[in-house]
């Protein structure tokens, strides 16, 4: 009985969130995440939100493109892109841009889409959320093309005699030269579409700017022939997780690491020591280490006041918290003086 499953739709979720549980961890869309947080707030129930993302995949001009294209394709088309942490925006430096695009298109041209229940091996299966999701993909693709993006592969809903019309299939799609103002540059895809952006001037600063120009900030990855360069770029990406020369999913595979993002990707963390600690009641307790040595209020601060208490307290503050040695010594001197009876004159009785 350690783990129990409750299955249902919105009403069941609402009942769970308002049931008085100690904490809620929600994985889903930003729109539903807002509802969960608002509902939980009524009972002051703490919430962890992991709300998906648009992870950047940065390829520097010194990267090994032939090896990276397979990694890029795996990142997009594994689970048909239906991953919370998966690359959606590919920022490729100008020097290696054509090589990357050509390599990806070559791979996609040989990929098979269809039901995985047959006798033929397929690379891309069905979309889990049905026809409405296909329409959402098409809206993003059409908008990008209308704004100047190039459609290199796929980008259509199967119709007519296409065998894929018998299910919820969307062919692996590649968009190149995607403009920053395209909807697909900001809205989560959660599907089998690779969006490629050109990093002009082979500039790390420009790649970082492009990657951070997004409301999501879940995970990220950077590829470079220089590991230290990849690390420098990764540290400047807005993301809760980063990987260098590997898919960002490797951070999820390591369960000792905290998982989560910020911005529209949510807040707080699960997994790792941070996630486990977040499921505990953290308390602070002070006890006497030596039983016969106990704390007591020093005489200068006894009631009724003699007027010396505030000065004595100032001395304590200087001794413990002053940032200079001279200030610490000053505090000790104040303690000595006011402990020996030095006191400001009493106020007159009112």
Walkthrough of the structure:
The protein has 350 residues and is an alpha/beta fold. Helices cover 33% and strands 13% of the residues. It has helices at 10-17, 30-41, 65-77, 97-108, 131-146, 204-212, 227-234, 250-253, 272-278, 309-321, 325-339, and strands spanning 24-27, 47-50, 55-59, 87-93, 150-153, 173-176, 193-199, 216-217, 221-223, 243-244, 262-263, 266-267. The strands form three sheets. It has a seven-stranded mixed sheet with strand order 5-6-7-4-3-9-10, sandwiched between helices. Strands 1-2-12 form a three-stranded mixed sheet, with helices on one face. α3 crosses α4 and α10 (309-321) packs antiparallel against α11. The radius of gyration is 30 Å and the shape is elongated. The N and C termini lie far apart (69 Å).
